[in-house]
Amino acid sequence: MKKQADAASRGPKSTTRLAKAVVPAIVDEERLLADLRSLIHSARRRIASVAFSTQTLLCWHLGHRLLNENLQGSRAAYGGQILVTVSRELAAEYGRGFSYAEIARMVQFAQLFPEKAIVVTLSQQLSWSHFHALLPIKEPLAREFYAEMCRVERWDVRTLRQKIGGLLFERTALSKKPKTIVASEIAKLRDGQMSPDLVFRDPYLLDLLGLKGAFSERDLEAAILRELEGVLLELGAGFTFVARQKRMSVGKDDFHLDLLFFHQHLRRLIAVELKLESFQPAHVGQMEFYLRWLDKHERAAGEEAPIGLILCASADAEQVELLQLDAKSIRVSEYLTELPPLPLLRARLHQAIERVREVAARRLPAAEDTDRP
After folding, report:
1. Is 135:105 a contact under the CB 8 Å cutoff?
2. Are 312 and 218 members of one domain?
3. Domain of 289: which CATH number?
4. What pairs with residue 274 in β-bridges?
């Protein structure tokens, strides 16, 4: 009887504890909805990515199949007739995406990008609309450059068109190298290796700053920070802003670097000095000093040595070349706050490329003579 009484006395308390244990917690509806939305958006992005990739590969396969019919050369006229017929039939069945103009682009696509493995890789990031922008580029190496940079930096179609229109390839240090080196650098980029020659430009187009007439270095620096998002787009993906007027204490004196960035792909600090005047050889000594300080005090484990960029109003190519700045990890580039007409800029860049390549060609025989026993 006593045990029954004890059990009876414990019964209500046990029931109370059990009731407390099964009370459901309050649901955080906002967090739940945020998680569900994230899952939906992620799935839709994957679906869109697969759809874009499939469409791009379909266009390549169609173009490749038509090329296999040997519709070029002496059979070009016949080939044109075939494309008219094929496009008329396909457009009637599948819509405007298979018009004559589109079918002709597909054939050109297969011609200009003959390696399926490369197309498969590019199609993971580039849509058929991206290739629409790439196909008109006549220079093969420039076309490959834009395709790979678009893949690596994940440009949308609008950005790709802006980069092409802004002559990005012609403004890179890479464009001034011999074609064999350009091809080698692009091949390395496919394997995930990015070099400084792919990153730095000359000149930099800073018309977005809105600076006209006379302005000071402080005005230029302030404008860059004010329009930092646009400036980073011009610098290229991978740049992260670190500091303005970076203080460097050496002995009893303090020195200040105008701008400091970090580049994700290069794994390096990028020191930037702004100059309103033309480039002077004396600027190199100042930048070397800054780079040594950064290498000693700011370089983290696993990072490469810092690189310096001297941005100036103008630069004499012969002076820059004579200083052999690549060995010192220093780059010199002009900046343009007001853009010249595009044909003028294009002509100027092409002249610079040809001049540098001619100098390199003259040096090559001399180097070979030196190597001979």
Report:
1. yes
2. yes
3. 3.40.1350.10
4. 311
The 10 Å Cβ neighbour count of residue 12 is 9
Ranges of H-type helices in the chain: 2-21, 29-67, 76-94, 100-112, 116-122, 128-134, 140-153, 157-165, 168-171, 179-190, 196-199, 217-226, 228-235, 282-297, 317-323, 342-371
Q: Point out the residues of the chain with pLDDT beneath 50.
A: 1-3, 7-8, 14-15, 18-19, 367-373
Amino acid type, 38: S
Domain count, the chain: 3
Report yes or no: 165 and 214 within 8 Å, Cβ to Cβ: no
Contact 185, 207 (CB under 8 A): no
Query: By residue range, what is the domain housing residue 176?
Result: 137-199
Is residue 56 within 8 A of residue 123, CB to CB? The reply is: yes
Residues 212-246 have pLDDT tens digits of 878 888 899 999 999 998 899 899 888 999 999 99
pLDDT at residue 161, as a whole number? 96
